[in-house]
Design a protein that fits this description.
- The complex is a heterodimer of chains A (100) and B (303).
- Chain A has one domain: Ribosomal Protein S5, domain 2 (2-Layer Sandwich).
- Chain A is globular and about 35 Å long.
- In chain A, strands 1-2-4-3 form a four-stranded mixed beta sheet, with helices on one face.
- Chain A is built from two helices and four strands, in the order E-E-E-H-E-H.
- Chain A has 100 residues and is of the alpha+beta class.
- By secondary structure, chain B is α/β, with parallel strands linked by helices.
- Chain B folds into two domains: 229 residues, Phosphoenolpyruvate-binding domains (TIM Barrel); 49 residues, no CATH class.
- The mean pLDDT of chain B is 93.
- Classes of the chains: A alpha+beta (100), B alpha/beta (303).
- The interface between A and B is medium-sized, with 26 and 24 residues.
């Protein structure tokens, strides 16, 4: 998948994460801000990169503001932001396919 | 991934608590409250421009969180919206126990949802027929068609009235005692019992009016409802207590069942217990009370 325009998903409420994506010519540029950075920064980074890999996203600027989200929430927000950036978040989502 | 066992069409459903599927803080620990069913909501609680995000959040919650014995139902968007078809795909792929059809008005509405549910089960390799259905009746038309709605599908386990929308469509306000809605409740109860499915009352919106809430719960129980929709965990306990058979009812039911068993052995169909006539229907009802007491965890006898 290719990030086509800037998109955002999630909120800044407790237990949530806000994920923004925007197009980038080459490579992934990931920035993370988290209320639990010291304890979980590495896991958050690994989880986000794993989702991007599953989705086949190779280029893009991704920024995560984490408010203590569980991994399943983080995944949901990254996926939603990427699908929104392509304008295909409303239907025919490949549940169980690249969204797993 | 957490595989959930095949849902039971008939089980204890005294309480169904609504949870916004878009709010991770709510859905991550919904099972700890001891509610019988949780109702993850894709409909009214989710803003129109967040329907897509709510589905991603719901899908991963269903796949990741172990809800244990708590039943997981999802309220999908109405059939007059552009959202319900994707809602069904998401719910079935995620493996929820059942779907609540919002604003149901006819047997055809149930059949439409059933068709799409079956298609989604095939698409995602989910056992055919696994996903249960229930319908929310929110309009006069829905109430008047309750009989055909209740009997529309083998997947149907129950119907619920949705008070807010129903009162709006009748141009009435909420009145203590429920004179404005009790006819609809009664019609729905009759239809549900005629079809052999369960029946649930609407949620009580005034969180700080404990007396009003408790009075409504008692009335629900007296009218014959199986359970009630809730919007806050602190409403759970009172409903569970009220819907459990009392020690007196249990003792009485035990006596009836024992007497019935003894008489049945000697070929007697009708007899008296404590001066009251008892025949087969009484014994059936007594067995239902014992089964309910067991399910509520308040039966300690040996029947």
């Amino acid at each position: 998948m290719e990030i086509q325009k800037a998109a955002i998903a999630g909120t800044l409420e407790s237990s949530d994460a806000q994920v923004s994506v925007e197009p980038l010519a080459k490579g992934i540029e990931l920035s993370i801000e988290s209320s639990v950075m010291n304890q979980y920064g590495r896991q958050i980074k690994a989880a986000v990169l794993a989702v991007l890999k599953d989705l086949g996203v190779e280029n893009g600027r991704v920024s995560v503001v984490d408010k203590g989200a569980l991994e399943c929430t983080l995944k949901a927000r990254v996926e939603c932001a990427v699908f929104r950036s392509m304008g295909i978040s409303d239907k025919n989502i490949p549940w169980g396919g690249v969204v797993k | 991934m957490i595989p959930r066992p095949r849902p039971e069409r008939f089980r204890l459903r005294r309480t169904m608590m609504f949870m916004n599927a878009q709010k991770p803080g709510l859905i991550k620990d919904a099972y700890i409250y001891g509610v019988d069913s949780i109702m993850l909501d894709l409909e009214d609680a989710v803003a129109e421009n967040q329907k897509d995000a709510a589905r991603f959040s719901l899908y991963h919650a269903l796949k990741t969180i172990d809800y244990g014995d708590t039943e997981v139902i999802v309220r999908i968007n109405g059939l007059d919206t552009p959202h319900w078809q994707e809602d069904i795909r998401c719910v079935v792929a995620g493996g929820a126990d059942g779907i609540r059809i919002a604003k149901c008005e006819s047997a055809q509405d149930v059949k439409t949802v059933e068709e799409h549910t079956l298609a989604a089960e095939r698409e995602f390799g989910v056992e055919e027929g696994r996903t249960l259905l229930m319908a929310a009746l929110e309009s006069p038309k829905g109430i008047l068609n309750a009989a055909e709605i209740c009997a529309a599908s083998d997947r149907m386990f129950g119907v619920a009235i949705s008070g807010g929308d129903f009162r709006k469509s009748m141009h009435v306000q909420m009145i203590p005692g429920g004179i404005e809605i009790n006819t609809a409740r009664s019609l729905m109860l009759l239809a549900a019992r005629a079809a052999g499915i369960q029946c649930f009352d609407t949620m009580y919106p005034h969180l700080n009016d404990k007396e009003g809430f408790e009075a409504e719960v008692r009335q629900n129980h007296e009218m014959g409802f199986d359970g009630k929709s809730l919007i806050n965990p602190r409403q759970i306990r009172y409903v569970h207590e009220t819907f459990a058979p009392t020690p007196k009812e249990i003792a009485n039911a035990e006596k009836l069942v024992r007497a019935y068993n003894e008489h049945a052995k000697s070929g007697v169909g009708v007899f008296t217990v404590d001066g009251k006539m008892v025949d087969i229907p009484f014994a059936e009802d007594a067995k239902r009370v014992i089964a309910l007491a067991k399910a509520c965890g308040v039966y300690h006898g040996d029947l």
